[in-house]
Write a structure and sequence with these properties.
- It is a single chain.
- The protein is α+β, with helices and mostly antiparallel strands.
- It has two domains: about 10-215 and about 335-420, 3-Layer(aba) Sandwich (Aminopeptidase); about 220-330, Alpha-Beta Plaits (2-Layer Sandwich), CATH 3.30.70.360.
- It is about 35% helix and about 25% strand.
- The chain is built from eleven helices and 18 strands.
- β2 and β3 (about 65-70) form a beta hairpin.
- The radius of gyration is 24 Å and the shape is globular.
- Bound molecules: zinc ion.
- Zinc ion (ZN) binds near residues 86, 97, 98, 131 and 197.
- The site of zinc ion (ZN) has 5 residues, from loops.
Length: about 425
Amino acid sequence: MMETLDIPSGERAIARCAELGRAPYSDMEGGLFRPYLGPAYRATCEKLSQWMAQAGMSTRMDAAGNLVGRYEGLVPNAPVVLLGSHIDSVRDGGFYDGMLGVILSIETVAYFARAGKRFPFALEVIGFGDEEGSRFPTGMLTSHAVAGVLKAPDPAMPDWAGTTTLAGALEGFGLDVGRMHAASRKGDPVVAYVEAHIEQGPALEAEERPLGVVSAIAAQQRYSLVLRGMAGHAGTVAMALRRDALAGAAEIILAAERVGRAGTDGLVATVGSLDVVPGAANVVPGEVVMSLDVRAGTNAARDMAVAEILDIARQICRARGLEIDMTLKQDLDATPCDARLTALMEQAAGSVTGMPAPLLVSGAGHDAMIMAHLVPVSMLFIRCAGGISHNPAEAVTQADTEAALRTMTTFTGLLERHFG
Ligand SMILES: [Zn+2]
């Protein structure tokens, strides 16, 4: 029989994230930087392994350098539910991006271990090594390996500091770059991947909700637009005769904003980068290179918005006598979270908080997006102060963390009926 379960506390989870925000768990003075396979990464994996062991898990490092803890199920070789997020952090990042999800996963197992509760599935906690591209010009390298979709990475890929290669960094951990793909869980009885993560946006705060459930990770397209007009003297070229590339770009930026604002399904449209040629105060701008980034919860919503913005851009350029080139730079499909797991997560969050959890589209990419190639995924978002992330000012409240932890434990209980 199961003992009475105590109420899990968010206090320890927050304290642990904060503890891991300093040396030796950070590779920078006065802030947090935890690049994949660096000294701080090693120290962090050792500390996390201790906490996993205390929570009743066996631990190992997989062939891609991810840390994995396992809490056995009722029978050997049971199906596996993976809980986790990423261990690495951007330079001068916050305590909670990625790490809160890892710690909450450990706390979830600790909670059941204290009560001697086992499930018809094993619970594994995975801390991904490279999500951020924190060390190498990659991103989500290690979830690609686990999901079995890793394309052979370049062993000679240098790190940002130019001090070592991917092969060298892995070797320092006793790992072989040629065997990274062996971290794949294809063929293993993994049945779900569940990730809790800070929202990294302001929607939950605006709606005054502690938790949100992710319906999909956004479809994204990024374009580079080049507008060509005619450079000329700012004092002598009459207004009527100008072909000002920057004035055209300004109209396109406002059109993108208008289309984005009118959209639904988590639609967002951004022009974030602008190069003006020649870029002098006394010259009419002859050329502009600008970015356009459009994201939405479905491919269809994104495609419609992109088509509309590009169509308006062509009209603007025609009217202004500008040439325009459009190059697609990035094209990512939307990743829907699993409908049934999402419904269970909504149920869990609703029962813990006493109010419905909003369904959100994640505009940012996550390991869950890659893991969806392997298994059904579900994501829980936790409100963070001001929506701020990738910044030392990242913050969550203890009450919200507690609600997230109780949602994870409740969700795991619901899974027992789902997979039991
Ligand atoms: Zn993250």
